Amino acid sequence: MALNYIWIFFILAAALLSIVQWVATGDSATLADVVASTFSSAKSGFEISLYLTGVLTLWMGLMRVGEAGGVVGALSKAISPLFRRLFPQVPPGHKAYGAMTMNIAANMLGLDNAATPMGLKAMKELQSLNPKPEAATNAQIMFLVLNTSGLTIIPVTIMAYRQQCGAANPADIFLPLLLATFCSTIAGLMAVAAVQRINLFNRVVMAYLGAAALLVAAIVWAVGRMTRESVESLSIGVSSAILLIVISLFIIMAMRRRVNVYDTFIEGAKDGFKTAVSIIPFLVAMLVAVGMFRASGALDFALDGVRFCVDALGADTRFVDALPTAFMKPLSGSGARGFMIECMNTCGPDSFAGRLSCLFQGAADTTFFILAVYFGSVGIKDTRHAVACGLIADIAGVIAAILIAYFFFA
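Request: output the structure for the sequence above.
Response:
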């Protein structure tokens, strides 16, 4: 519902502002720009969706191979000690663990919409344990907030968008995004744990979180001692190596189980193709609305207001151009994606704002969308503390993304 009003507002505001400018000045250039933007944005949305089709087809196929090869089961076992502490109401070995692991794995790989089917399955399995079907359980809220924090290790789709927009090194946001999304996830986890009185100082939980924190600290320490050129080279090398290792591991494990790897890949790839095709209308619709909003000058007016306030405080204003992505992200993934692409097209994919918009896109997830879809799928009406904790994760991700972008790209 929120997205409906946002979409209508963008289009009507663009139409009204362009007509007012024409009546006030007699210059119809803005009107022509707004109309032209509808065609150019629709074309851009289709072209980007077409390119993304290949990426999602590939990775959904590989995910299916990884599932058949037992990698998902191994991940479930590896992470089950942590999950048992974070989800104390879920019995050991419950079906929800496998679905949650698959969903989180897809999010870690930055597959966006590809994670949704497993997320819905996980929510359904958790609902089977719900004594009050209309109220969210603690386990469902913890899962949702971990989902909305958007923990991403390999931002596949964001790198694909950067490649499509002409970035010199599409993977240069790999390490910064890893750090930003880690901050978002930790903030969301701490918020839920505080409300649900989960002891994060448990030895098992501290072991997992401590290991993750040490890894992130080591990355920050190493990066801080390197030149920007070296950081970009390392980011590209690490991301490429992880991608190749993941692909190889999925295939090798499937071969060990005597799985027909090719046929399994094709079955998963079919789902990826369907997912990619289903995105086209949403991406085209939002890119057209965003394009009209920017062409009318409305977006520039809003950003100029924020820029004036930031400048009055004596702060650097380069981050302002990327803010629309941050503002839209909790409401709509396709809307934020549209602003991210628009920012890269307008400011350049390798500009500070272009890179920061990618960090905003990957640092957190669509809190209100996920809440509506996931809880709506099982009939939950009382969301309890899910929204507040999800927004805490989003805000932490935005702040971290800005600080990290200045550290890496300023």
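The chain has one domain: 30-409.
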